[in-house]
Amino acid sequence: MAVIDATGHVVGRLSSVVAKRLLNGEEIVVVNAEKAIVTGRRKTVLAEYTKRRNRGSTTSRMRGIGPFYPKRPDMILRRTISRMLPNQQPRGREALKRLRVHIDVPEAYKGQTFEIVEVAKRAPQGPVLSLGEVSRQLGSKF
Fold first, then answer.
1. What are the residue ranges of helices labelled H in the chain?
2. Which tens digit of pLDDT belongs to each residue from 75-88?
3. What are 2-61's pLDDT values in tens digits?
């Protein structure tokens, strides 16, 4: 089982690497999901996530018509990874069951060394937002 620290990793790059490893049969735990970053200008990033969040109907007559987008950073990261898997096929659904995403570091993983995905790590060059900031703007109370 691999434990990956998402601190400073770009969400999309991390998701693609994790999805590929899940399809190969690995069990993966991602910690510190709120510290993963999204690149781009603040206004543009928040507008895109708000647009996704508001998509779908919430009226009682139309309840159940999605897609519904999560607010919490761990669920945003999990959804991003799941959309990179063939989730309509049995192998994609089985792969998603091998994934755990956590906000912060749970007690069970406190003493372990965390893996860093070099391809997804980014030095701060341009404007970035953490998933925690995006989540708070969407109204999460994590």
1. 11-23, 42-54, 73-82, 90-97, 131-138
2. 999 999 999 999 88
3. 999 999 999 999 999 999 999 999 999 999 999 999 999 999 999 998 888 777 666 655
Helix, strand, coil: what percent of the chain each, to 5?
40, 15, 45
Name the DSSP letter for residue 107: G
Q: Where are the alpha helices (DSSP H) in 55-124?
A: 73-82, 90-97
Task: Using DSSP, state whether 2 is helix, strand or coil.
Answer: strand
Residue-range domain boundaries for the chain: 2-138
Q: Which fold has domain 2-138?
A: Ribosomal Protein L13p; Chain: A; (3.90.1180)
